Structures are given as C-alpha cells and as structure tokens.
Amino acid sequence: MLKKFIGYYKPQKKLFFADMLCALVVAVCDLFYPMITRSIIQDYVPNKNLRLIIVWASVLLGIYLLKAGLNYFIQYYGHVMGVRIQAHMRKDVFTHLQKLPFAYFDENKTGVIMSRILNDLMEVTELAHHGPEDLFISLIMLLGSFIILCGINVPLTLIVFALLPVGVFLVAKLRTRMNHAFRVTREKTGEVNAELENSISGIRVAKAFTNKEGEIRKFEHRNREFVEARSDAYKVMGQFSASTNFFTDALNFTVLIAAACFLFAGAITVGDFVAYLLYVSMFLNPIRRLLAFVEQFQEGITGFKRFCEIMDQPEERDDPGAVPMGDEEARGDIAFEGVRFSYDNNTQILRDIDLHIGSGKTLALVGPSGGGKTTLCHLLPRFYELDDGSIQIGGRDIRQYTRHSLREHIGIVQQDIFLFTGTIRDNIAYGRLGATDEEIVEAAKRANLHDFILSLDDGYDTYVGERGVRLSGGQKQRISIARVFLKNPPILILDEATSALDNATEHLIQESLAELSQGRTTLVVAHRLSTIKNADEIVVLTPEGIAEQGNHHRLLEQGGIYAELYNSQFAE
Ligand code: ADP
Ligand code: MG
C-alpha cells in the first residue's frame, strides 16, 4: 500500500525533490546561526576582527534572505504538490466510482462515499505534503545539532540530549489527549451540522406539525454538547501549551546551569556556552514536527487505506470476447429465460422468469408493489448480474455485448427521477451529449414540455435547483421523458413513468409515451392499468413469480388478479 501511495509522487517528482532540497537547505541554514554567533563571541570580538564580524553578519543576512525565499517555495509549491496529489487521487477514485456496479451504491450511503472522497483524502494530502518535509527537517535539525554540539563537548551534549525523551514523551502524551478532544469536537460539529440540515430540510413538516419548540430544543441540546466538547478541547490545548512552554523553560534552565558549570570548570568557552543555549532553544520545534509527522502518518495512512478500499472494489467488466451491440441486434426480440435473481443471494426476488417481447412490441408488467417489476427492468441493461438463467436481445445473451453498447441502445424513464444541477437544457441534453438546440426543443415538444418551458422566465436556461426542487413531479418526469426522446434508443423501459402525474397531465404524456414506444421494443411498468390496456402482452408479476400472462381482453376474461385490479381501478 505504501508503494501505491508513493506512486502518486511520481508525476510530482520534480516538485518533490525541489521541496526536499529546500527543506534541507532551510534546516542547514538554521544550524548556522548559533555557530556564527559562537565564532563572533569567542574569536572575532576578542581579536577585534571587525572585518570578519561584518563578513559573517553579511553571510547571516544572506542566509536569512535565502531562507525567506526557500520558505516561500516550500509553502507555495509544497502545497501545490499536495493539492495536485489530492486531485490525482480524487480523479482516480471518481473515475473508479463511475465504473462500480449498482450494488456498490445500494450498500454505501452517498454521505459516507462523499466523506471518503473529501475528508479522508484531505488527511492523505496533509501527509503527502507535510510528511516528508517534517520528517526530513526535524531529523536534520536534531542530528545536525547533536553532531555540532558533540564537536564542542561530548559530556555536556549527552546531558542535554538525555532530556529530550522527556519532552518527546510529554508532547506525545498531550497530543494524544488533544487529538481525542478534537475528534470529539469534530463529531459534535458534524452532529450540529446534521441537526441543522435535517431541521431545515424538514422545516415544512415541522411547521405543519407546529413542532417549533421541539426542533429548537433538539438543536439547543446539540449546540450545548458542542460547546462542552469545545471547552474540553481548549482545556487540553491550554495544558499542552503551558506544559510544552514549561518544558522549554526547564530545558533552558538545565542547560544554563549545566553549561555554566562546564564553563566555570573551563571545559567550554563563553562562545560554546551561548551556542548551547541557542541550539537548545531551537529543539522544541523539531520535536513538535516529528510528533506531528507521526500523527499525520497515522491519519493519512488510515485515510489512504479507506481510499484503497474504494479503489479495490471490483468494477463492472465486460465478459471476455464481448462485442459491441449493433443496431440490427438491438431491434431484435428480447427474451428472458429461466431468470432467477436475488440482491443478497438470500431472498429470491425473481424466480424462473420466462418472458418474450417481439421486436417493436410492448410488454407491460403489472402487479403488487414489491413484486420485482423495477428489479426486472434493471436486469435488462445489466445493472445487476443474474443468479441463473439468461436474457437475450437479438438472439444473443446480453453478457456477450459490451455494457456500454448495451446501455446505449436502451432508454429508461426511471421511477425515481434525478435531475442534475444545471439548466433544463442541460438536463434534457443529458440524453445525448452534443445534441443541437433544435433537437433538444424537438424532444421537449414531443414530451409535451416545450410550452411549459417557454412559460418560464429563463426558458430552456432555467436553472434546476438542488435536485430540481422548483419543479413538480410531473414536470421532472417530462424532462426525463424528453431525455429519452433525445436518446432515441430502439429499446425502451418505462418504469411507472406516469405515476407522478395527475390525470390531465397523464393523458398528455400518455400520447407522448405512445409515440415514444412506436417501433421500439418496450417494457412498461404501470400502476394505472388504463395506460397499458393496449400493450401487446401483459404480465402480472407477484413475489411468487409470473401469475398471469396475456393481452387485456384475455386477462379480463380469465377473471384473475388482473381482472380484479382492473375492476377495482375502474370502479374508482
Ligand atoms: P416493484 O417495482 O415491483 O415495486 P422492486 O423491484 O422495487 O418491486 O422490489 C422488489 C423487492 O426487492 C422488494 O422486496 C424490495 O424490497 C427489494 N429490493 C429492491 N431494490 C433493492 C436493492 N437495491 N437492494 C435490496 N433489495 C431491494
Ligand atoms: Mg417499482
């Protein structure tokens, strides 16, 4: 997995090495300052060597300017590298999601998938960008100062470095507590957000049931929990900052006393003394960085693991030897033979379904809700895999066609209509990307939608808000019908395409649908039986399987489920 992670650095190789080089130079620059100060104090000042003092002061100034430039580079390009890596991963996961089967989206909630793509990858980016830099800089700082100080005086250096583990322990301990506190805070923030979203989405229900007080109380509760969690976090934060400050002070103090003793004993010079104090005051920074790295590594790798979990989901693949479906084949007969299907290998939804739809004919599915009508419709474009049996189009098993070509030849008006954020034009054009404006208008006309669209202020450019909130169910349905008109496929699936419509609109749409199914092989599911009376074949599907089959008149004569359903609707 680490290999995969490192793989994402490859396209950013140049930036990465430039970033590391800058980090190296910055760390080395920082190591210079105490050494220069030491030389000035112990050599140049006693020798009154003004020239060297000026030279080294200028060098120092130069180093600071260089550092400023490098820090700019690290900040700017380091983040750019991080965000590029993130974009690369996001693109990969998005592309992969597009290829995952329906079943994946049945099992995983949209919110969870989103949080994986957004939040988890955010943590991965943090690691990708800061990780190597933090590790590198802090190791060089600690190692560099250790070597330099050992060069001055080994026993004193060992005393100083013996204290470091205490600091590491302290920072590590408090950081864990701080992380825990902030994790709780994040959860509470999420809960407040969820409460807010839930309450605003449901405001109409709340008003209708005059539940204002209840809503406010629920929100207050969450809000209070949020404040408490935050307060806890700030408490730990206060402890963290107070103790790390105290540790630095204690370290400085110890070094001051110890170095003073060494100085007094003549083991080190005044310059060495100052150098020790300066190096030690810099120590806490690399320790913090090192611990930040450990933590970032944990969080980042966890995030990356979750990213890999999605990437490892098997995508929909064409069967070996699959060929593109031709127009001729798509116009052929459709046959279901001994089809068995279950979503979870447990509950049989469809058992031994045999159906035949002649080329250009219409087959209607009716039956109780939950009987498996929608499921059956979803099997034709191969949204799910069969447990047993086969489905043929044009005399060939659908598994012998590429999925892409199979779906290209099928138009579906689904039960749940989804509109993308964008204009009405965009949404109709989704039926066939690249369609001309004339074609889009033509499709809208055929879906009986054109006049309605023109009555809107912005016409075809009317923006369809979040999930088309501003349109009625019937209007949305007609947009989805227009989409299919535009796609113009030889095979048509209408799954309760008119269920969201009132009687008058349904009548209008019925004409468009009748026109749409002209010359196309059609599978239609209808709740209102008046709409499918003229179907060539009607199949009554129940959870037990196909109960009745025949045309309208035959089924009425038969006096079974269909006749009963029809009579009860007719009586209404
Ligand atoms: P119908 O369209 O006839 O009302 P469906 O095909 O929607 O029936 O549903 C048939 C059965 O399959 C129902 O029991 C339903 O709960 C179940 N079902 C539908 N979709 C899924 C799914 N994505 N995952 C698991 N079970 C499902
Ligand atoms: Mg259904």
From TrEMBL:
Subcellular location: Cell membrane
PANTHER family: ATP-BINDING CASSETTE SUB-FAMILY B MEMBER 10, MITOCHONDRIAL, ATP-DEPENDENT PERMEASE MDL1, MITOCHONDRIAL
Taxonomy of the source species: Bacteria, Bacillati, Bacillota, Clostridia, Eubacteriales
Keyword line: ATP-binding, Membrane, Nucleotide-binding, Transmembrane, Transmembrane helix, Transport
Gene Ontology molecular functions: ABC-type oligopeptide transporter activity; ATP binding; ATP hydrolysis activity
Chain ranges of the ABC transmembrane type-1 domain: 20-299
InterPro entries: AAA+_ATPase, ABC1_TM_dom, ABC1_TM_sf, ABC_transporter-like_ATP-bd, ABC_transporter-like_CS, P-loop_NTPase, Type_1_exporter
Recorded GO CC terms: plasma membrane
ABC transporter domain boundaries: 334-568
SUPFAM superfamilies in the record: ABC transporter transmembrane region (SSF90123), P-loop containing nucleoside triphosphate hydrolases (SSF52540)
Gene3D superfamilies for the chain: ABC transporter type 1, transmembrane domain (1.20.1560.10), P-loop containing nucleotide triphosphate hydrolases (3.40.50.300)
Protein name: ATP-binding cassette domain-containing protein
Keyword Nucleotide-binding: yes
